[in-house]
Design goal:
Length: 319
């Protein structure tokens, strides 16, 4: 039995797990994803005999907080992250993929991928978490999944936390991954569309540590994503690629590879200042970008705030 079970191995969950494991707690993390990433996901595709990668979730991250800056400096030193000036002076990316920092954080921890928590219940022995055919028990449970998913998971077990998470609305995002046989005639590596339909596009193959053919990631704006939310992904991909050519003025080119991913809960409207919430009486807490700010750094800061709240309570209960 773990001391603490963490549901969700994205940036928030793994930051909390790291801090708690360093403080001597026995931690198990479960994540429904097949591998490390969460919303810092990366995907590979074969394109003309070459492997190309696409970061279809977060595009880059900032490191303004001094403690997060130290973590990012360690990633840089180990080759897991690099600066990406094309996105701005303070922009960092995972190398060779956005999910590399997540992989690095998970490596020393006990993280079980491909395990989805279905239900939580409180027993005399602590928390019981049903996850497919497996059951986990732990004295403390921390839920670090997107707000809407946390609200469902916590509805019966911790109604107050469920209500907090349920009050957040996240914007969806259709992400298109397009590979081309030759470079597109667009002089910049990034495109920021302040107005719909394309909110952002990036030449993924130009990020540090990437190689291979011309690869672009295109993000639809929240309004355009909502408009196309129920389309099959191949139709959404074609519509958004056309939007991209129209927005950038690049003459339409035929992609060799075209795929799309629909993020239902991409970017939450964040509750600034909350950070994280821990209920010491029940031994349950929540973290995630929605409790701090809708960014990678916000997720890390939220995970740290939750770990600090748990550790403070541990100290208080033993003194
Ligand atoms: C399209 C897009 C673009 C973005 N662009 C940027 C950007 O440029 N810069 C930036 O800083 N941020 C960006 N973000 C936001 C950033 O990715 C997030 O703020 C951050 O990664 C959130 O981390 P998290 O740990 O809170 O959540 P997540 O990364 O979502 O992690 C939650 C984890 O919980 C798991 N999970 C969910 N339900 C369950 C369950 N029932 N059981 C087990 N596991 C479960 C999921 O698999 C996931 O791994 C972007 C996000 C998206 C989607």
């Amino acid at each position: 039995m773990a001391d603490i079970l963490i549901i969700g191995g994205g940036m928030a969950g793994l930051c909390a797990a790291t801090a708690l494991a360093e403080a001597g707690q026995r931690i198990i993390v479960i994540d429904k994803g097949r591998g490390p990433g969460g919303r810092m996901a990366a995907r590979r595709a074969e394109l003309a005999g070459e492997t190309v990668s696409f970061d279809h979730g977060a595009q880059y991250f900032t490191a303004r907080d001094p403690a997060f800056r130290e973590v990012v400096a360690a990633w840089e030193a180990s080759g897991a992250a690099a600066r990406w000036p094309a996105a701005g002076d303070g922009a960092w990316v995972g190398t060779p993929g956005m999910n590399t920092p997540i992989r690095a954080m998970a490596q020393p921890l006990d993280v079980r991928w491909g395990v989805r928590a279905d239900a939580l219940s409180r027993t005399a022995a602590g928390w019981r978490v049903a996850a497919g055919e497996q059951t986990f028990t732990a004295a403390t449970v921390l839920v670090a999944v997107p707000a809407e998913q946390a609200a469902v998971l916590l509805a019966d077990a911790a109604p107050d936390l469920a209500m907090l998470a349920g009050g957040v609305e996240s914007a969806p995002c259709w992400a298109v991954m397009a590979g081309f046989p030759a470079p597109l005639p667009y002089t910049h590596d990034t495109f920021r569309g302040d107005t719909a339909p394309v909110s952002w596009a990036a030449r993924n193959s130009a990020k540090p540590g990437r190689s291979g053919a011309e690869a672009w990631v295109i993000h639809a704006s929240p309004a355009r994503s909502r408009e196309l939310i129920d389309l099959p992904k191949d139709e959404a991909a074609k519509a958004l690629l056309a939007d991209f050519f129209a927005a950038t003025g690049v003459a339409p080119a035929v992609p060799q590879h075209l795929d799309a991913h629909r993020w239902l809960y991409a970017l939450p409207e964040a509750r600034k200042g909350e950070g994280a919430r821990f209920d010491p009486a029940l031994g349950i807490g929540i973290a995630g970008d929605y409790l701090h700010s809708p960014r990678v750094e916000g997720a890390w800061l939220s995970g740290r705030a939750l770990a600090q709240a748990v550790l403070q309570e541990r100290v208080a209960s033993t003194s």
